[in-house]
Amino acid sequence: MKNIKILIVEDEVIIAEYIFDLLRELGFDTIEMVHEHIEALKMMELFKPEIILMDINLNGFNSGIDLAKEKNKEANVIFLTSQYDYELMNKALATNPDSYLTKPIKKHDVSAAINLVILKKESHAFSFKNGHELVTLNYSEIQYFKSDGNYIDIHTKENKYSIRQTLGNLIKQIPEAANFIRIHKSYVVNKNLISKKTVNSVFLDDTEIPLGRAFSKLL
């Protein structure tokens, strides 16, 4: 996931540029950098970063904590701090960041923190190309996968996407913790979203999906 989108939010320009260069050295190339609260809000909306390296104290205030509460839903936050204020850190930790780094920032610490976030994302989310765009969905958003030959339709409550892949190969990618189950030769469903089961079907609210005889014993 070296093409993962990373946003640096740091008011000290020299530190921000230093982190930018570190990320480049680590092989990441989809990076944006901002230095103020308002710029960060705009960039979160337009760029939709997947990882934000967020300075807790922007321009002398704790606005990094506020920004973490307003982040785009795709983003995981890694806080940057030079302070050892336990009350401040408790406020920051209450926003559920994925990690934090203390200044001066070290290359191996940045690498470890980002790679841990990527591993977490890979176990909780499904990424695929939709045209030229990389789409990442949390497994909890996906209702079911439907196979149509060498193509698979991915159904969420609001959207449908199509990818070129076989269902057999797809199943190998889904972690067990995501709790998906194959109920038909052409369907894999989110077990957490099944609202009703009959002899021949399962229901995801109002959506009826056929239940194959060979798979019914798995439910």
UniProtKB/TrEMBL annotation:
Presence of the UniProt keyword Coiled coil in the record: no
Protein name per its UniProtKB record: DNA-binding response regulator
Chain positions with 4-aspartylphosphate modification: D55
Residues in coiled coil: none
UniProt keyword Phosphoprotein present: yes
Domain HTH LytTR-type as annotated: residue spans: 126-219
Keyword list, A-Z: Phosphoprotein
Gene3D superfamilies: 3.40.50.2300, LytTr DNA-binding domain
GO terms of molecular function: DNA binding; phosphorelay response regulator activity
InterPro entries the UniProt entry points to: CheY-like_superfamily, LytR-like, LytTR_DNA-bd_dom, Sig_transdc_resp-reg_receiver
Species annotation: Aurantibacter aestuarii
Boundaries of every Response regulatory domain copy: 5-118
SUPFAM superfamilies: CheY-like
